[in-house]
Amino acid sequence: MDERTMRYANELARMIRCETVSVQGQSDYEKFTRFQALLEELFPALFAVCEKEVFHGSLLMRWPGQHPEKAPVLFMNHQDVVEASGEWEHEPFSGDITEDKIWGRGTLDDKGALWGMLRAADELAAEGFTPDCDIWFESADAEEIGGNNGEGADEISLILKERGIRFAFVLDEGGMIVTEPMLGAKGSYAMIGVGEKGTADLKIIARSSGGHASTPPKDTPLVRLGKFMAECDSGSLFRVEMNPTVQEMFRRVSGGIDGMMKNVLSKPDVYKKVLEAIMNRTSPEGAAMLRTTLAFTMAKGSDGHNVLPQEAWVLGNMRFAHHQGMEESVEAVRKVAEKYDLEVAVEVAGFTSPVTSYKCLGFRMLEQGIKEIFPGAVPTPYIMNGASDARFMSRVSDNCLRFAPFSINADQRHSVHGPNENLDLSTLAPAVDFYRWMMTHVG
Ligand SMILES: [Zn+2]
Prior knowledge:
Shape: globular
Radius of gyration: 24 Å
Low-confidence stretches: none
Distance between the termini: 35 Å
Number of domains: 2
CATH superfamily of the largest domain: Zn peptidases
Number of helices: 14
CATH architecture of the largest domain: 3-Layer(aba) Sandwich
Bound molecules: zinc ion
Helix content: 25-40%
Strand content: 15-25%
Oligomer: single chain
Order of helices and strands: HHHEEEEHEHEEEHHHHHEEHEHEEHEH
CATH topology of the largest domain: Aminopeptidase
């Protein structure tokens, strides 16, 4: 391993070792204070040129540019991580460095990218570079717990809005550089999230007068819930629609596909109806791109094996498509629920982000940077199924982009929020090069 990579890996390892698991309702920010002290130690040149503010456990910094009158840009990646249960080959907070990898909770989500953006900026600051426009950095303490408890990116975006700040673009965590992103497409693709689906949990409740299990009437609560779930599962509850982002994604991945599908995917506007029907039926990932989804995740019946429940419920986790938002999607569920005499309650709701155009200046800059640093990787827009802090920043920018400049394989993709999260050492230096390219070209 070369000296530069070794130095980089050791820095990231220290950030992994400084555990920052966020917990619902947190009020003690000591671990984030400790983590930020480490950041100051690792990136002294950057902290020396930035104005710094701390909100609860979240960090906001401004690097003044040569032209403060120009629209600033925002680079953001969160500090907190999810807990690390399960069986790990390397201790989750060890930051172990092996021959070709660095291991631990947060390597991919999201300390790797946080390290990369700060490392790039610190190097530039140490070289005496001043950016053309103001560059802001944000790093929240509550992304993994929804960020919407009035802290983290939620709070900071409102403060920025109140100050009248509008960013030319925002770059947050999101897609990465992957091979075979879908449909067996050959080659390497830099997946850039341009929007994210909204989420909510629905509780569907069935009531009855209860009774003994020895003389069950027809349509007891669990039976009604069962019929209801079976009907929802048919896949025809929500409107299927291939939006312009998904169409553009297909156009770009079609370059790596052989045979008849190449032609179909390269003209998604022409073959829209066919593609919608195929994708919705053949793969869960395909369906999630085209419509709202509803997944049943929890259930409760009576407390006794021989007691009919007076109340039973199931919980459905929903992700709303942009063309059929929360109100309309929940209404579709409610209609089915009414057939079986069930109540529907919306438990937790997060909002759907706007969609950033893949033709905007920020996206085009990302494309250019990717071309320079990762030749051969095809920049591809997509809609994320999961939520990120970037959605809050839609309050202060029309152009929120979600991309982390790391090359990862399928195993690594699945290690996010699971055991054995890890990052290839070979991807560290290019990530810094990428952020350096971005920071020296903004303005
Ligand atoms: Zn994350």
